[in-house]
Amino acid sequence: MSRPAIWEALRDALVALERDGLARRLRTLDAPCGPLARVDGRDLVSFCSNDYLGLAADPALTEALVDGARRWGVGSGAAHLVSGHLTPHAALEARLAAFTGAERALLFSTGYMANLGIVPALVGRGDAVFADRLNHASLIDAAQLARAEHRRYPHGDVDALDRLLAASTAKRKLILTDAVFSMDGDLAPLPELLALAERHDAWLVVDDAHGFGVLGPQGRGSLAHFGLPPSPRLIHMGTLGKAAGAAGAFVAGAAVVIEWLLQRARTYIFTTGGSPAIACALLAALDLIERGDTRRDHLQRLTAQLRSGLAETRWQLLPSPTAIQPVLVGDNHEVLRVAAALFERGLWVPAIRPPTVPAGGARLRVSLSAAHTPEQVARLIDALRSLA
């Protein structure tokens, strides 16, 4: 049977991805999320996950999840606004609002869905979104979905953003940024961005996926890290599948903003509510995050150990103060070779290539967790120094 031309085009495109060192590989783990992984029959030390506090397999979360499932079942059965909003959801939203210092919070099924819901609910045609050039894919897609003018400013360049905002005649303006950039590990200049939002009467939407639980007093996130005061124009999105160890996301902010998202965010209205058992696990996770200074201190020590251990080698570490420690390699094929060499030594570090990062910016993305030991980090340092 002959193949249709559209099928042939897909096959040729897949061949091109392989040729250019851009093909991705799906691996199946035969172990719970944690620093020790079993993949393809091999035992590895994993530096891949965003389980920054080591909560994904914590017994306290497992116990809360099981107890929650026994009490509330597994599924919610409907969208939140139909009949899928259960008592654990309401309790988690109230707890998240109090924890972040916001008037109110709203749960979403994922961070991606939260971003796709927030931006189009706040701006549309005739409005403008001003986005950091290194924003996460979900923020890029959210801006495009909103059908507003999409202006991208150079990474972290507050002056360039100020000029763009001043020149804009859009009816409504929205500044859109990651708090911790997922592939570089650096922080957005949030105080300066909030000042610009005040000056130009704009919304400021902050994706705190990689800061919530890790940064700020008691892990309250990037806004608390910078000591930002509450503002009716500031919208805080945090994910619950990274440092919180489970799944889902939330948006926190002024009560009127959250009510508007409840009424207009399509990815909230038309999605089945998350598992009430997961909400129970997340309530336990928030307790551990709040009491997690020991975990966060250990994570900071591991970060310092890695950076010190790779200093004065050919490996270029990007200037990241967070648990995300990118090792810049540059060439797609070279980063794949280094990642494969580490894998052979029992160390699993993902090779990140375009379009996730800019062309020529291929890198190893080392993700540290409070569940790692200094001995495991030392093993990674020794292997990278040897490969250098």
Structure overview:
The chain is of the alpha/beta class and 388 residues long. It folds into 2 domains: 127 residues, Aspartate Aminotransferase, domain 1 (Alpha-Beta Complex); 232 residues, 3-Layer(aba) Sandwich (Aspartate Aminotransferase, domain 2). The chain has 15 helices and 14 strands. The strands form 3 sheets. It has a 7-stranded mixed sheet with strand order 3-9-8-7-6-4-5, with helices on both faces. The longest helix has 18 residues. The protein is globular, with a radius of gyration of 21 Å.
Average pLDDT level: 96
Q: Any idea of the CATH topology of the largest domain?
A: Aspartate Aminotransferase, domain 2
Query: Are there runs of 5+ residues with pLDDT below 50, and where?
Result: none
What's the tally of helices? 15
Domain count: 2
Q: How many angstroms separate the termini? A: 51 Å
- Give me the side-by-side strand order of the main sheet: 3-9-8-7-6-4-5
Described by strand count, sense and barrel closure, the largest sheet is: 7 strands, mixed
CA-atom Rg in angstroms: 21 Å
- Helical amount among residues, as a percent range? 40-55%
Q: Write down the CATH class of the largest domain.
A: Alpha Beta
Q: What's the overall geometry?
A: globular
Order of helices and strands: HEEHHHEHEHEHEHEHEEHHHHEEHEEEH
Number of strands: 14
Instruction: State the fourth-level CATH superfamily of the largest domain.
Output: Type I PLP-dependent aspartate aminotransferase-like (Major domain)
Helix/strand/pairing category: alpha/beta
